[in-house]
Amino acid sequence: MKFDVNEIEFDLDDSEEYKLTFDEEIALRDMALGIYEADDEDDLIEIITDGAGYCIKSIDYDILSK
């Protein structure tokens, strides 16, 4: 399936060791937006979480194809 992630919010509250700056948060979000190929929503979330290094708090996407 192809997913177009158009909005995402990461759970950054757990990161007490290093606090991201506002610009870093924006860059992280922008990096995660776009088109992904995944088996299902769970796979999509795992792909993005692994790439970003942060858990996803909320995500909005459109399914482009199955």
Structure write-up:
The structure is a single chain. By secondary structure, the protein is of the alpha+beta class. It has helices at residues 22-32, 41-52; strands at residues 2-10, 34-37, 56-65. It contains two helices and three strands, in the order βαβαβ. Strands 2-1-3 form a three-stranded antiparallel β-sheet. The chain starts with a strand and ends with a strand.
Shape by Cα distribution: elongated
- Distance between the first and last residues' Cα: 4 Å
Radius of gyration: 12 Å
Strand order of the largest sheet: 2-1-3
Total strands: the figure is 3
SSE series:
EHEHE
Poorly predicted ranges (pLDDT <50, ≥5 residues)? none
Class of secondary structure makeup: alpha+beta
| Number of helical segments with 4 or more residues | 2
Which sheet architecture does the biggest sheet show?
3 strands, antiparallel
The percentage helix is 25-40%
Bin the strand percentage. 25-35%
Average pLDDT, rounded to a whole number, is 92
Q: What is the oligomer described by this structure?
A: single chain
